[in-house]
Amino acid sequence: MSVATPKSPWRRRAAIPGLVAAEAISVIGGRMSFLAIPWLVLVTTGSPVKVGVVAGAETLAYVLSGVLAAPLQDRIGSRTTSIVSDGASAVVMGAIALTGQLGFGVLIVLSMLAGCCARRPTGRRTTCSSR
User: pTM (2 decimals)?
Assistant: First the structure.
């Protein structure tokens, strides 16, 4: 019979640089999307009004989803919430890139979903999918 030995403190510390790098990539990507999505609308439509509508939809979803973020994260856990939100954000950003020419309505819906997945300044996340 073998006895499980606890992980050494050095082994746990080795994962910290990877965590910091992943966090930095996630935060930078989220901040870039707040600029990139309205820029995509401006380039594809040429309408400043549509840029405002898309930016407003993304921001409105960001603000409204923040109300539900904390209780949901407390209920299902920080790690699960972070993983699901990062995955959903990647899917939404990929969908925006692939379907940018489908229509303005689709872009509004996708930008709202992107706003739901955005990282909060407190480090909390929201999820794009219902549980």
Answer: 0.68
Q: Which two tokens stand for residue 76?
A: 């299902």
Instruction: Compute the distance between CA of residue 57 and CA of residue 114 in angstroms, rounded to an integer.
Output: 10
- Answer for the pair 57, 114: CB distance below 8 angstroms, yes or no: no
pLDDT in tens, 37-91: 888 888 888 899 999 999 899 888 888 887 877 788 888 888 888 788 878 888 8
Q: Give helix 78-98 / helix 104-117 axis angle, nearest 10°.
A: 160
CB 56 within 8 A of CB 116: no
pLDDT at 124 over 70: no
The one-letter amino acid code at 85 reads S
Assigned token pair, 27 = 């935060």
Of 60, 78, 54, residue with least CA distance to 127:
78
- E runs forming strands in 8-102: none
